[in-house]
Amino acid sequence: MLLTRLARVSQEVAATSARSRKIALLAELFRDAEPADVPIVIPYLAGRLPQGRLGVGWKVLSRPVAPAAEPTLTVREVDALLGALGKVSGAGSQAERARLVGELMAAATEDEQRFLLGLISGEVRQGALDAVAIEGLAQATEAPSADVRRAVMLAGSLQTVAEALLADGPPALDRFRLTVGRPVLPMLAHSASSVAEAVDKLGACAVEEKLDGIRVQIHRDGEVVRLYTRTLDDITDRLPELTSAALELRGERFILDGEVIAFDEDGRPRSFQEIAGRVGSRVDVTTAAETVPVSPVFFDALSVDGRDLLDLPFGERHAELARLVPEPMRVRRTVVAGPEDVSAAEEFLAETLKRGHEGVVAKSLDAPYSAGRRGASWLKVKPVHTLDLVVLAAEWGHGRRTGKLSNLHLGARTADGGFAMLGKTFKGMTDAMLTWQTERLQELAVDTAGHVVTVRPELVVEIAYDGLQKSTRYPAGVTLRFARVVRYREDKRPQDADTVETLLAAHPEVRP
DNA sequence: TTCCGACAGTGGGGTCGCAAT
DNA sequence: ATTGCGACCCCACTATCGGAA
């Protein structure tokens, strides 16, 4: 199949906003793909490269290359070239990668270049990723979409399911079962603004500590243990403590879901930054393990002794977990009967925060494990802090925010009467706010060159954030975690904004 | 008819590791 | 040695479609 066909379909998919139309367009293309093209065409149209990342980013992609006049590239040629690109390493590799990208782009027409650019940079912006591609695949093969989706979650890969399905038809879906050693996409949580709201929605539920670490799925088959992250990367070699912990458990074969965290000498949880650094360390694992030893804390069991527990209600899965995992290695929790019990849940949240954790997750006791989905049966509750900060500058947006000032630079007052930048945010704005702030900030602009518009520090904005963390980037030595806009405070003047001093006082556990 | 779940998009900060300077 | 870049951890929120209520 020619790449130009994919580029054209991707453009059509992007042009329509109707999801049903996107699905139909993808299905038509999938039907026409030759078997050898399938493992390439499916991920490409889901906006992803089968090779994953290539070591090529904006720096290389932004170099313009004269396009070819006629479309001649086949998807298999492109795949072969990108495959080679991903394998380049060692000295001179950056130049070699740039050369290969240049070669590919020179062989592509203008439309194809645009498509390849989006693909390699991970920004296809066609309004269809895996979930829509799954629907398209289901339509193309006349398989029930729920079955296809389930198979993809269990395989952890759209591509393998697509190949099997297009080769052998719907019966091939039966081959995808929960298997120890093959990671499944983890279940995710929604947010609730309070414990009361969460308990109200769920009724009888477990309220569990929410630990601020790294999600881990642990597989044991006899003496073999493997660990996977939320995105199904294998991190077994980086966390030897977890392998030991898994081997000490009573079961021989199981899949558990949990979080990796670390404690300091006083038994307080270490900061997310320290844990993420540890999990990210690959080269000198021994030293990293001595500096920041980690522990697993489990909260769910997906498979025990070859039995698939995914469809069991959470209450029953937890009973299995409790049989296998001793108390200290399980997440702390309390069970509430319903809204009449909300004070117990609130008390548990207060205790959890006192122990230094992030918040709680309320989980319905009768919900199955919805792999890969952000089910409404898990609701996280975290305390939210707010500040009044001053807008120091704004950046022009991309994609659907093109032409709008989007990303705000936020400052707090300093002792000398100036402002210290604490970070940026583009979150929480409605379209109306984007339009309004684009106009207002341009009135305040003092420097409009480049993609950052610097403004007079006069506009006060209320910002919500999850916490403070250390920073080497910002002048106060700290930055806000997950900052988002609540509303503009036109009733406040910049001299009414919060100061760095009060911010630091509110978070005594964080020192710049 | 209205409501709500699921999705895609828009990027944020930090850290590590590798290659280039 | 230091710097720049890319990959991957964590994440919030809004707009929109389309099925459920």
Please explain how this structure is put together:
It is built from 18 helices and 19 strands. It has 512 residues and is an alpha+beta fold. It has three domains: 3-174, DNA ligase i, domain 1; 188-381, D-amino Acid Aminotransferase, Chain A, domain 1; 386-510, Beta Barrel (OB fold (Dihydrolipoamide Acetyltransferase, E2P)), CATH 2.40.50.140. The strands form four sheets. Strands 11, 12, 13, 14, 15, 16 and 19 form a seven-stranded antiparallel β-sheet that branches. A five-stranded mixed β-sheet has the order 1-10-9-2-8, covered by helices on one side. A five-stranded antiparallel β-sheet has the order 4-3-5-6-7. Strand 3 and strand 4 (224-228) form a beta hairpin. Helix 8 (130-141) packs parallel to helix 10 (158-168) and helix 9 (145-155) packs across helix 10 (158-168). The termini are far apart. The mean pLDDT is 92. The chain binds a DNA duplex (21 and 21 nucleotides) through helix 6, helix 13, strand 13 and strand 18.
Number of domains: 3
What's the total number of strands? Answer: 19
For the termini, the CA-CA separation is 56 Å
* Total helical elements: 18
Approximate strand percentage: 15-25%
CATH architecture group name of the largest domain: 2-Layer Sandwich
Largest sheet properties: 7 strands, antiparallel
Which regions are unreliable across 5 or more consecutive residues at pLDDT < 50?
A: none
Please compute the radius of gyration using only Cα atoms: 25 Å
Helix/strand/pairing category? alpha+beta
Shape descriptor reads: globular
**CATH class membership of the largest domain:** Alpha Beta
| Average predicted local confidence, pLDDT | 92
Helicity range: 25-40%
CATH topology of the largest domain: D-amino Acid Aminotransferase, Chain A, domain 1
CATH superfamily of the largest domain: DNA ligase/mRNA capping enzyme
